């Protein structure tokens, strides 16, 4: 029986497809932020360096693309928790993740007007994200408590609530710099007294 030959180009195609998908999502996030529902999917494809067929193969509708943009931001947060935990001390990982959460809030604010137009509203899109975000911050808080870095009475959800409060001022000028300072204030307040 003849031996099957592997296709060397197969893996490259998957890598290219993943890279195309990521580039489309990055360009789409910016476009939805600038143009909302008036975003031209053909322009997104062009700026991503792909043909319209490639864009529609990944994202058959505008809503599918918008949902994917939002979910990719949530996935980044979940993945960041795992990566930061591998490379940083517990309290440093928690701080770094909180700063990434500020960036997530910024991205969410940018695409929120477009998300509000989805069939079923944005709640449908937000449903699954809450568990990922709460899981990530809970793991980081638990690790920091177990290491003795932060107060043992801290509830991860309370910390998340404080961070979400930052989004209420997201339209103010320089809000991100202020939010980053608030992260440092929160971290200092969480630490156990020496």
Question: Which structural traits does this protein have?
Answer:
194 residues, mainly alpha, Arc Repressor Mutant, subunit A, Tetracycline Repressor, domain 2, 2 domains, 8 helices, 76% helix, elongated
Written account of the structure:
With 194 residues, the protein is an all-alpha fold. The protein has two domains: 10-60, Orthogonal Bundle (Arc Repressor Mutant, subunit A); 70-194, Tetracycline Repressor, domain 2 (Orthogonal Bundle), CATH 1.10.357.10. The chain is 76% helix and 0% strand. It has eight helices and no strands. The protein has helices at 8-35, 41-48, 52-58, 62-87, 90-115, 122-146, 156-166, 175-190. α4 runs antiparallel to α5 (90-115), α5 (90-115) runs antiparallel to α6 (122-146) and α6 crosses α7 (156-166). The mean pLDDT is 82.
**CA-based shape:** elongated
Largest sheet: none
Find the CATH topology of the largest domain.
Answer: Tetracycline Repressor, domain 2
Identify the CATH class of the largest domain: Mainly Alpha
User: What would the average pLDDT be, to the nearest integer?
Assistant: 82
Residue share in β-strands:
under 5%
Order of helices and strands: HHHHHHHH
CATH homologous superfamily descriptor of the largest domain: Tetracycline Repressor, domain 2
Question: What class do helices, strands and sheet pairing give?
Answer: mainly alpha
How many domains make up the coordinates?
A: 2
How many beta strands in the DSSP annotation? 0
Over all CA atoms, what is the radius of gyration?
20 Å
CATH architecture of the largest domain: Orthogonal Bundle
């Amino acid at each position: 029986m003849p031996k099957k030959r592997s296709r060397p180009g197969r893996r490259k195609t998957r890598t290219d497809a993943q890279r195309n998908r990521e580039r489309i999502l990055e360009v789409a996030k910016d476009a939805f932020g600038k143009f909302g529902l008036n975003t031209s999917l053909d322009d997104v494809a062009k700026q991503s360096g792909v043909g319209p067929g490639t864009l529609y193969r990944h994202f058959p509708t505008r809503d599918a693309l918008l949902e994917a943009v939002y979910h990719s931001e949530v996935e980044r947060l979940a993945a960041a928790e795992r990566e930061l935990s591998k490379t940083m001390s517990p309290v440093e990982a928690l701080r770094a993740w909180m700063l990434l959460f500020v960036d997530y809030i910024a991205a969410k604010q940018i695409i929120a007007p477009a998300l509000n137009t989805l069939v079923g509203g944005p709640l449908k899109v937000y449903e699954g994200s809450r568990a990922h975000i709460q899981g990530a911050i809970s793991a980081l808080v638990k690790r920091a408590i177990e290491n003795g870095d932060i107060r043992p009475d801290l509830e991860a959800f309370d910390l998340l609530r404080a961070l979400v409060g930052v989004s209420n001022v997201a339209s103010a000028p320089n809000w991100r710099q202020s939010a980053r300072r608030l992260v440092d204030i929160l971290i200092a307040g969480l630490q156990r007294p020496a």
